[in-house]
Amino acid sequence: MPETVVRTFLELTDPSGIRPAAPPRVDGELRIDRVEPPDGATSRWFYENVGRPHQWTDHLGRTDAEWQNWAESVETWVATVDGRRAGYYELRHPREGVQLTYFGLLPDAQGQGLGGHLLTQALRRAFELGARVWVHTCTLDGPHALANYEARGLRPFRREVEGNG
Q: How far is CA 54 from the centre of its chain?
């Protein structure tokens, strides 16, 4: 039987509700830069490498052109430490608010407080684009994903259960 997956949708509707994370404990220069111009290959690389441990498989079959179209529909921001990729986030601005569509760290960048810091930056940028930020996570994501979202001020507004455990 497939495992039960719980998907949690979270939102924040007031930028004053952002609870910043402590500075990350990284050795080296941390940069968070927007990918300009949009680059489908970068979005694909992060989707594959951040998502692999969390069963992100829905979009693995996208063509290069589809990845490029995706990249042009979102803002992609990449965190690097001393020039080495550490994580990323992507923001999209549909009618229902700014969606944090993808967010995550590469395995070797985890455990240093970088996730909370990167999420704080993502939320701040999202509120520059709109009045509501939302995201969804699930029990297949990293073990600290939901706690990180809630610690930064996001609040659940819907849960869905898939599968039967």
A: 13
Q: Where are the alpha helices (DSSP H) in 15-133?
A: 40-51, 64-73, 114-129
- Is the CA virtual torsion 60, 63, 64, 66 positive or negative? negative
Q: Count the helices and strands in the chain (H runs, E runs).
A: 4, 7
pTM, to two decimals = 0.93
- Angstrom distance (rounded) from CA 37 to CA 24: 28
**Tens digit of pLDDT for each residue in 132-148?**
999 999 888 888 899 99
d(CA 70, CA 95) in angstroms, rounded, equals: 17
* Sheet with 133-138: strands ordered across: 30-34, 75-81, 84-92, 98-105, 133-138, 5-12, 155-162
Q: Which residues pair with 131 in a beta bridge?
A: none
The residue among 162, 154, 120 whose CA lies nearest residue 10 is 154
pLDDT > 60? residue 2: no
Mean pLDDT value of segment 89-117? 92
3-state secondary structure of 115: helix
Please report the pLDDT score of residue 1 as a whole number. 41
